[in-house]
User: Fold these one by one.
Assistant:
Number 1:
Amino acid sequence: MAEPGRAGDSQGSEAYVRVDQRDGVATVFLDHPEDRNALSFAMTRALAEAMYRVSADDAVGAIVLAATGSVFSSGGSVDDLLEPKAPLSETYAGFLAVMESELPTVAAVNGPALGAGMNLALACDVIVCSPSARFETRFLDVGLHPGGGHLWQLRQRIGRQGAAALSLFGEILVGEEAARRQLAWRCVPEAELLETAWELASRAASRDRALTVRTRRTLDASAAVTHAADAVALELEPQQWSMRRPEFVAALGRLRSRLGRADESSPP
């Protein structure tokens, strides 16, 4: 949790979130290190605005969520918890905007991600972290029930036992262990973190945006499937849709051309 008395809602959203854009990837930085990137109401509104803006930009194909300073996010603002500025559900706006984006998302976790700050990382499709990353639930430590889909997201990543270990028993996952436990996809040196996250996002952004969005949507829908036949049925219509697109015909044409050139260069 963030320390009280450190955040000011009178500041504009640019005081909380910064966006850098390069080659189809938007990197959205939590940029309020003076309160350890706490999820104050001002921060969560600024993050939601930034996420909706970059998600609607046709020039953006993927998003990296990162942080300025040594703390990814210290979680909920103590000031805002003691004196709420909005209904509780509205304080979820930031990580819901991350979760609801149709674009592929990568979290670059460079330090502690605490309580609701973990929700931001968990809302992304893929998490990469540095050795200094620390994933700590903390809700029960301050007498608060987990919220914002925290338990469900944890269970999706690391199963019931892992979710119980972190939320009920206060276990903490740091850097390499977070990757071993599959809470993070990869742990890389601090100096390589942002570039690694960007390279992953860039790979997704280089693909056909409409096809990527549709695939991501089907991936999410597959969570509710319990039988193989239903999984085949779920993917049938979008696969047929993709085969009707001119982009598919063009890609097959390029593949045929490459295969033809490879055959010509093969020895008799």
Note: The beta strands are 17-22, 25-30, 62-67, 105-109, 112-114, 126-129, 134-136, 173-174, 186-187.
Number 2:
Amino acid sequence: MKKLLLAALLAGLTTAASAQTSLYGLVDGYLGHTTGKTSATQVSAGGMTTSYIGIRSSEELGGGIKATAVLEQFLRADTAQLGRFNGDATWARNAYVGLSSRVGEVQVGRVTTPYFISTIAFNALGDSSVFSPMFTQRFGVNNFNLAAGGTDSGWNNSVLVKTNAGPLALTGVYSAGVQDDATGTKQAGKSVGAMFFRGPIGLTATWQDVEQGAGKPSMTSTIVGGSYDVKVAKLFAQYNRVENSDAVTKQDKGYSVGASMPLGKGNTVMASYARFDHDFVGNKSAETASWALGLTHAMSKRTDLYAAVRDTSYTNDGVNRTNTAWADTRVTGVGIRHRF
């Protein structure tokens, strides 16, 4: 009996050693003020990074192969609500199961798109939905193309294949249902992205296409970008072009430049500028210009404070000018982030 108990205990320890499950996440809250067509002071969430909580489980299968399952959920700490907005999917950040090895990875489920990764990796303010000029243009509430599924950070019903070849990483995604809403609307999508990092140099090129669905427009997007670390600062630049088939927008094209500079003692200054030209049906057009400055102070490896301002101005021939979202705006805020 003692031998049987010992064998069972050893088997349990072996299983625990090969399988690991972790809980992790980030919570971001800030105090901000917005001026524009309307002005308001708010205590809100996700100023510099959208808050989320995640569960990851992995198991070593032998031969260098690992199985992984990931479930990640956005949240709003200011109102104690789940999701980025009311009606957001439960595990909208990521929800996939996959296999990985030294040479690459396959994920099946809801996955993050290469287009999203290229956008945030090659601009100084990253994935800030409040302060990053490039992010707010492509994924924020001021985006002309919110009706198209290609603007979300992740795609449903997808298979992602990622390979690594030294400094070069290639990612391909096929989605059988970019959008899968309550009405059953589905749009197929495909995307290919490349990222290259060697020494101080970073480069990216990403293309994605979302097919037209029932009542949903198509969207074809391209990004090329680069970064260069000159030690005293890291420089960023990217060019973005989007073609649409919706009833309003025909094409968006623009660029972003910026830099982040470490100042010592955990301080980093960030600056970014983005400009977009928008072509509409009926030979109408608009221009968007946005700049931002930010400062982060690391209190530890997991906690930092930040302050930032973003100013956005629009010029157009009357298209959407009555919409509050298209008024010239300035957003300022101070906040805190904690990772766990």
Note: The domain at 22-339 is CATH 2.40.160.10 (Porin).
